[in-house]
Design brief:
single chain, 246 residues, Alpha/beta knot, two-stranded antiparallel sheet, 37% helix, binds 6-chloroguanine
């Protein structure tokens, strides 16, 4: 999968040259290509922004350099590419949207800076707008890296164990938060590992993990529980969890 990134700061994206995503790049399961709007300016100052019509603080990104960079990215791809504008005004990113994006061959991620982008760009170069949460970042780059990481994990061969992708927190596979994890040692400052995990009874462990996942989701993210259909067995496990809360 190809990620074409429109950004004034391509160097920021070295932050994802590590771990699973770093390996996916090395193995050419994904590629990142950068298009700097500054390289598509035609004036001597290489101006990419200007003050807002109507007044107010901050600067607004010019249409022309962004448009030229997006068009160059389109022309470099033989397959059609979906344009994604990274903006706090966009649709909130969730795992369902991540999986949708992972079905694309080519994405053009547009990372804005300053107060935003001249509204007319999205009319000239249509695309979708995505936000990664209800807070304000200084630019779309960090959000773009979040999108790349989450999307790349869905591609075949990127995560070693395909099952672990399906079991992740928020995977649309379970729709639940993840169960708690433990590793050695068995006791730390008097805090013990739940007994069931030491017993080796796999059916019991699966049951316990499901109960914990249901219980945590009920406690921390009741909104997620409303979106999924619980089986009769799930309801019993959740009731057990609720009854046993201290
Ligand atoms: Cl995509 N961009 C910016 N600048 N801020 C954000 C965001 C994106 N998502 C949440 N906050």
């Amino acid at each position: 999968m190809k990620f074409n990134i429109i950004t004034l700061f391509p160097e920021m994206f070295t932050a994802i040259d590590y771990g699973i995503i770093g390996r996916a790049k090395e193995n050419e399961l994904i590629s990142l290509k950068f298009w700097n709007p500054r390289d598509y300016t035609e004036d001597n100052y290489h101006k990419v922004d200007d003050s807002p019509y109507g007044g107010g603080s901050g600067m607004v990104m010019l249409v022309k350099p962004l448009q030229a960079a997006i068009q160059a990215a389109h022309q470099a791809n033989s397959d059609p590419a979906l344009v994604v504008y990274l903006t706090p005004q966009g649709k909130l990113l969730n795992q369902e949207l991540v999986i949708e994006l992972a079905s694309q061959k080519n994405l053009i991620l547009v990372a804005g800076r300053y107060e935003g982008i001249d509204e007319r760009l999205t009319k000239i170069e249509p695309g979708i707008e995505i936000s990664i949460g209800d807070y304000v970042l200084s630019g779309g780059e960090l959000a773009g890296m979040v999108v790349i990481d989450a999307v790349a994990r869905q591609l075949p061969g990127v995560v070693g164990d395909a099952d672990s992708v399906k079991q992740d927190s928020f995977s649309s596979f379970t729709g639940l938060l993840d169960y708690p994890h433990y590793t050695r040692p068995e006791v730390i400052d008097g805090h013990v590992v739940p007994k069931v995990l030491l017993g080796g009874n796999h059916a019991e462990i699966t049951c316990w993990r499901r109960k914990e996942a249901l219980g945590r989701t009920w406690l921390r993210r009741p909104d997620l529980l409303e979106k999924i259909e619980l089986t009769a067995a799930d309801r019993m496990l959740l009731n057990e969890f609720i009854e046993n809360i201290e």
